[in-house]
Amino acid sequence: MNKLLLAVLLILPMTTIAENWLNISEEDESPYYFDKDSIKSRYNPDGDLIVSMWTMYPSEHPIMEGTVANQMLNYANCSDMSLKHAEMLELDSDGNILWRLSQFKNKVDLSSVMPLDYYYPKSSSEYSLNLEVMCNKATIELGFENANS
Asked: What percent of the chain is modeled with pLDDT above 70?
């Protein structure tokens, strides 16, 4: 009986973690896991959601190589999404843009309109594990549906 109880207690935390993490990868793709509790949202004074941020963790290899902003967007699967979903920004109380992540059809390099240090940690070897504000369709829909202030 004690062994059974111990087995249940060991499995229970793993089950809780598994339910919290969502695999949003496509078929024949390395799994990418999204932590549903990592959602951070910002609202304008009228209560409209203006940005929903989350964190994506690749399981085996980096999401991308290099540090170009449009590479980040390509690997985040923003190219076939509407502007509403593919452009996210945070405004201050005066309406000034604090930061922005955008996807343009002409694949403009976005380094001039977004502070890359905000998205990438200082250590280049670890940046892909901390990448925030991804545009994967499944993730963004979940983020907008379950956003917490």
From this structure: 0
